[in-house]
UniProtKB/TrEMBL annotation:
Organism: Rivihabitans pingtungensis
Residue ranges constituting the Mce/MlaD domain according to the UniProt record: 45-113
Protein name: Phospholipid/cholesterol/gamma-HCH transport system substrate-binding protein
Region (Disordered): 264-285
Pfam family, one: MlaD
Length: 285
């Protein structure tokens, strides 16, 4: 009789111990009733790799798990995902989700993102939208990028075809020949410039000589002197100034083409647009 009572108490003790262990495990796992709330997610993208019991993270911290996966009865083109999230995590109306992948294991999980604040979302309210994952976003843009790269390759092929290559080679050959002629052209231009300056000096000397002669001629030639002073001599001065300006402009032109010979083929660079003109950089600021 005593042995039966001992066995009974032993069995009851083992059962109580197992129940206590189960309660501790349930408490530590955080699945007690009321500790988690469920949200519905809707996705128009594939959720390949996502399974039930997959982790749910918020700002990189595990906060729940996936409890249900299926097709949305209201729209067969959408995937319906139910997640259980810790009740301490409060989501706003701007909250959204997307799929993520763990680095080493490659397991797929749900990432929750929230860009807003109060008022907080009702878990039983509207579903959270799921946006494309980084991988899905990249792969969706890949065909367009490949198409642009193909167009770029085709344009490069057109630019570098046989006819264009021959024209480019001819252009470079002409540029080389012109560059070889620049020293001789510079010497000729220097001589021309010296002659123009000498002409300007002689015109000034002539003007000064005429002024002196008229000053010594006396009243008899006063009227002619006045006419010369008012008409002829100013024109001589103007002609001398124009000759000097022409010499300076020719000197600048020679110097510019000596430093940048490509201007003869491509033209001089355009001045940047000023205030009020189209393309003025200051307008953008």
């Amino acid at each position: 009789m005593e042995s039966k009572a001992f066995a009974l108490w032993t069995g009851l003790f083992v059962i109580a111990l197992l129940a206590a262990l189960a309660a501790v495990v349930i408490w530590m796992s955080g699945v007690r009733q009321g500790e988690r709330v469920e949200y519905t997610l809707l996705s128009r993208q594939s959720v390949s790799g996502l399974n039930r019991e997959a982790a749910v993270q918020y700002r990189g911290i595990p906060v729940g798990k996936v409890v249900e996966l299926g097709i949305d009865p209201a729209d067969p083109k959408q995937v319906r995902v139910r997640v259980a999230v810790d009740s301490t995590v409060r989501l706003s109306a701007q909250a959204w989700a997307r799929l993520g992948t763990q680095g080493l294991t490659g397991l797929t999980f749900v990432e929750l993102h929230d860009d807003g604040g109060p008022p907080w979302r009702d878990p039983a309210g509207a579903p959270l939208p799921m946006r494309p994952s980084l991988w899905q976003d990249t792969t969706s843009k890949l065909p367009a990028a490949l198409g642009e790269a193909r167009q770029l390759g085709e344009r490069l092929n057109l630019l570098l075809d046989d006819a264009n290559r021959r024209e480019l080679a001819s252009l470079l050959a002409n540029l080389n020949r012109f560059s070889a002629q620049l020293p001789a052209l510079g010497e000729q231009s220097t001589a021309t410039l010296a002659s123009a300056r000498q002409l300007a000096d002689e015109l000034r000397q002539l003007s000064q000589g005429l002024r002196a002669v008229l000053a010594q001629a006396g009243p008899a030639v006063g009227q002619a002197s006045a006419r010369l002073n008012q008409d002829t001599l100013p024109r001589l001065d103007q002609l001398a100034s124009q000759a000097e300006h022409t010499a300076q402009a020719l000197d600048g032109l020679i110097d510019s083409h000596t430093r940048r010979p490509q201007q003869l083929l491509l033209g001089a660079p355009m001045d940047p647009p000023g205030p009020g003109e189209a393309g003025f950089a200051g307008a953008a600021r």
